[in-house]
Amino acid sequence: MKIRNNVTMIQGEMISALVELLKIPSVLDETYELRPFGKEIDNALKKTLEICERIGFRTYYDPEGYYGYAEYGAGSEMIGILGHIDVVSEGDALNWKHSPYAGDIATGKIFGRGAIDDKGPLVAAIYATKALIDANVTFNRRVRIIIGTDEEHSWRGICRYVAKEEMPTMGFTPDSNFPVVYAEKGLLQFRLKSDKKSDLRVKGGTAMNAVPESAVYLGDHIYKLEKALKKLGFDHELENEEVFVIGKSAHSAKPASGINAIVRMAEGLKAIGIQSPAINFISEKVGFTYHGEQIFGNLTDEPSGNLTMSVNQIDLSVYGEMIGIDMRIPVTIDKKFVVEAIKRLAAKYGLMYEEIDYLAPLYMARETQLIQTLVAVYVEETGLNGDPISTGGATYARSMPNIVAYGPTFPGQEKVAHQTDEYIEINAMVKCAQIYAKAIEKLLE
To answer: Which entry of 40, 86, 118, 315 is annotated as an active-site residue?
Structure first.
């Protein structure tokens, strides 16, 4: 009860710290020569370490800017809490009711890109540790907050940490869902490409792990396309001789929660008789499906459920055709089977397969002590069902042994990661911090 109350007492500090971080637009920028992921990501990393120092953590900043960590306590063993301060692009800021980088507070929520993914949960974990410090809890193990910088793209920051630093004994990443995640699907991202000049000018998608909220067509058929889109009932705009198809962004691990603007564009072009390798592939083999049914049939397993698939990028131009696809593969399904099927199918459309990234699945038995401990804390703090879950999300839990994803999203909460007007509910953030504080206390034992 004392620790729970301590979290409530420092709620104002926690909110202020999160607002500080949300004001930093920490989107990947590889054009900045002095730091690997850009000036703003580096600023967010330094600000997070500064916040930790104010609390009393010892901090370390990687001189090359790949990662940082903050540590409290003593002992040979270490509890690791893995978070990240980079965010996906805000997309078109005009679509936001609240500025993506202001940290607006309204209706009991804190708005901003990164509020739920992953700045808010990271701040909750930091202040959960402060609540334990304020309660004079004995830290006979070290608690280390490990801060990643490239989670939304290719994990170069956390990989550099793994190569150079000490591994935790156990821990969690606050970057998914409650009660606790015991299985994460394999993450495969790839391009299907043709080097042949395309007669089409189509572009869409800003991130490989986000359902695209817009796609644009430039060409001779804008009025026919607009008419077809209207007939299909797809939101669109005509502006400066370009047609914009409007969708709804979502995390690509849950493509059904978004509206895919690229798929809608492909369906609109198909409706007016326009064909190309990429457009044909999308309309015939993806369409308005989310599980690759038209390629694999029913590809699923008991621990982690269905495969998911989302076309998240497209670029058709005089330089050729490219579509970027994000796929989450059930934990017991062999990656080779999936890739070979895609390659064979792509070849029939005149497209070549090019792998961008792959993260192997995570699968930890429900009966392990770490999972049982985290479940027990969750049940005690919420009174809710604590059955462990599987997810299509890819978290830092895959990067180190004996780490699992733990929150911050509660069952039934709206999924707003990677979406416009992303937010974290203040009450939920406080409850997260209370859960994390109790979990850390138990892991210290």
So the answer is: 86
Structure tokens at 329: 């593969």
Confidence of residue 157 (pLDDT cuts 50, 70, 90): very high
Q: Could you say which of 71, 104, 118, 151 is catalytic?
A: 151
235 noted as active-site residue: no
The whole-number pLDDT of residue 388 equals: 96
pTM of the predicted protein model: 0.83
Strands (E), 57-157: 58-61, 68-72, 78-84, 105-106, 109-111, 142-148
Domain range 2-183+362-444, CATH class: alpha beta
- Residue 151 is a catalytic residue: yes
User: What does the mean pLDDT of the chain come to?
Assistant: 96
CATH of 186-359, one of 3.40.1400.10, 2.60.40.420, 3.30.70.360, 3.40.50.2000: 3.30.70.360
Q: Is 216 in contact with 204 (CB distance < 8 Å)?
A: yes
Q: Residue 228 and residue 226: Cα distance in Å, rounded?
A: 5
Is pLDDT above 90 for 361? yes
Residues 6+ apart with CB under 8 A from 41: 26, 27, 28, 29, 35, 65, 85, 86, 149, 150
- Stretch 409-438: mean pLDDT, rounded? 96
